[in-house]
Amino acid sequence: MLARSIGDPTLEVVYWARSKDRYVDAGGQPTEPPRERPGRAATPILRAGKPVAMIGHDAALLDGDELVERIGSTARLAVDNERLQAEILGQLVDLRASRARVVETADAARMQLERDLHDGAQQRLLAVSYELRLALAGARADGDDELTQVLAAAVEETKEATAMLRELAHGIYPAVLAEGGIGPALERLRDTAPIPTELAALPGGRYGLSTEMAAYVVVVDAIEDAVSRDASRAVVSVHAGEQQLVVTVDDDGDPRQAPLTGIADRVGALAGRLQLETTSVHAEIPCA
Hints:
Blueprint: H1 2-6, E1 12-17, E2 22-24, E3 40-47, E4 50-58, H2 64-142, H3 145-172, H4 175-180, H5 182-192, E5 197-201, H6 209-228, E6 234-240, E7 244-251, H7 261-269, E8 273-277, E9 280-286
Parallel strand pairs: 5-6
Antiparallel strand pairs: 1-2, 1-4, 3-4, 6-7, 7-9, 8-9
């Protein structure tokens, strides 16, 4: 509007964001204000004595005072509204970035915990199990039936504890996801899913830790939700778009009655899109 009224197609406007104490563009992103230079003028726009915007324009068309006079109070109000919108957009971008950092930090902590369990506690349990098996073999060789029975029970207990620890570590953060990516992780998930699960499509390549973890969580939570609705099967499809992973999970369970908050938070933290139908989950997750 300003460019047309002034007759300057090169006119540019940046807005003063009070919350950031700096200028931002129309999308709320920090930017440098226009500067005075040969042939170009930079005119501040004020409302009630407070900065609203900075306008860069052709100095040959009119000077700053003329520009302010041409703009008028109505246009200044419109520019102030644009400033408020730009500031809100900037806050939204900051909020999304903050949510993404929280998710990334949590994922990194989960990955480290999984490694600690695998390389620490699990390895020590395996070492104890090995020592117990040696002792069991010795007790059998000596014909000590009572000790043999005790050691055999201890060996079984360590086996169960190791299996439980391995399952716990996988639930915290599946190592195959970090090592092989979303495709192999979902293949592993299919083999252990509580209901028959078909993988209709899987992507190749890697897509960034946060993106892959979000896709994995979408599938896991969607399958768990399907089980809670008495589904007998699920169909999973994951394919790569231009700049995103598209995840779809369909099931034959009863209609969904409640929102999937965990999935919504995970996808929303990466500025993705989530669409829920009665028996379907569709997520579009930007690639990191």
